[in-house]
């Protein structure tokens, strides 16, 4: 299951002629409805709160709510299907080898897992805090470390798909290629 994707707004939305031509008008309309239902429920599940959510519950939104606002649906030309999920954001975290990677947080929140955080030692507060990755020059003279963080799963996309499963199957009863037994109507 893909957990993030990049959207080209000029080509990927369902009202664009290229998408209507690739999917067919009726199918594009049905896929657009299905994507909007899943997106709506996934966004509604992410509530604003100061503290983290409990494991197994949807994640809480904080501050700008970039995760919540970044959930979109679009046509994937390569796979010839609709994708629903968080758009790839420029959040940088590190893999086990200490190499930077982007787009990891939506996947880790959905499925659970580990990621590494670069921290810098604050000499005034005598505490470690997350490093500002925008300036490597500022970090070069400071004491840094990589800390592994374990995040328990906080699914928000899969419950949205499951909640709309019956609606999705109803939308695609007249579409010949729809697989009625599938639990995911080509949504990632």
Topology:
Blueprint: H1 17-23, H2 25-45, H3 66-69, E1 71-76, E2 81-86, E3 92-94, E4 100-102, H4 104-111, E5 113-122, E6 127-130, H5 136-140, E7 144-151, H6 157-163, H7 165-171
Antiparallel strand pairs: 1-2, 3-4, 5-6, 5-7
Helix pairs in contact: 1-2, 2-6
Describe the structure.
31% of the residues lie in helices and 21% in strands. The protein has 2 domains: 17-90 and 154-171, no CATH class; 92-151, no CATH class. Residues 176-188 have low confidence and may be disordered. Strands 6-5-7 form a 3-stranded antiparallel beta sheet, covered by helices on one side. Strands 1-2 form a two-stranded antiparallel ribbon. It has a two-stranded antiparallel ribbon with strand order 3-4. It is built from 7 helices and 7 strands; from the N terminus they run H-H-H-E-E-E-E-H-E-E-H-E-H-H. The relative contact order is 0.19. It is α+β, with helices and mostly antiparallel strands and 188 residues long. It is elongated, with a radius of gyration of 20 Å. The protein starts with 16 loop residues before the first helix and ends in a 17-residue tail after the last helix. Strand 3 and strand 4 (100-102) form a beta hairpin.
